Amino acid sequence: MGGTVSPPDTLVIACGALARELRAVMTANSLDTVRLECLPAELHNRPGEIAEALERRLQRVAGPYSTVFIGYADCGTGGAVDRVARRWGAERLPGAHCYQFYAGADTFAELHDAEPGTFYLTDYLVRFFDRWVWQGLWLDRHPELRDAYFGNYTRLLYLSQEPTETLLTTAREAAERLGLRFEHQHVGYGETVPQLVALGQRPPSSAPSALPAA
């Protein structure tokens, strides 16, 4: 007879824009003791709302878990994600944003230093370029805004996780629509893999997640 599968002991609460990639990492590494909860992906365009949304979700679901991990970088919150993490005794993904932890801190620093005027896309942002960039910035209705938003950019760099010909074609088209030079660099899942694998390898704890500090 097969052994009993232990219930998840670790909660990962993450950006919806990372859901597909995080699930792929969890499946590939059999992280059965980790539960993934995702906040709406549209918060990617509204960083001022991320910390409050994290707090509300953690209050609702974090109780049964001995370990909480926040699947966000700082993401333009000015330290607000870190403040939530400290209240809950949680860790978060490293870096300032998803481009950095996908590429790795050193690689991203080299890319940025080589050409600061770079607009970055990930697999998710390529898939939803029309929704979050073209329509999200009103470029579909006001194409004259393109120069206002992207006049200081020189290239679009697609940092891919699992690129397909369709994604590569869409990314090239996105660069053309924005008037930017297209480049592609495959970075995979970057620092999300060791972070999640380390969580999954932690021994189960009988202690529930602590309540946030007052």
Summarize the structure.
The chain is of the alpha/beta class.
Question: What would you say this structure looks like, in words?
Answer:
- The longest helix has 14 residues, at 165-178.
- The strands form two sheets. Strands 2-1-3-4 form a four-stranded parallel β-sheet, sandwiched between helices.
- Strand 3 (67-71), helix 3 and strand 4 (91-92) form a beta-alpha-beta unit.
- With 214 residues, it is an alpha/beta fold.
- The protein has helices spanning 19-28, 50-61, 80-87, 98-103, 105-114, 123-127, 129-135, 145-150, 165-178, 192-200; strands at residues 10-15, 34-39, 67-71, 91-92, 118-121, 155-160, 181-186.
- Helix 2 (50-61) runs parallel beside helix 3.
- It is globular.
- The model is unreliable at 206-211 (pLDDT under 50).
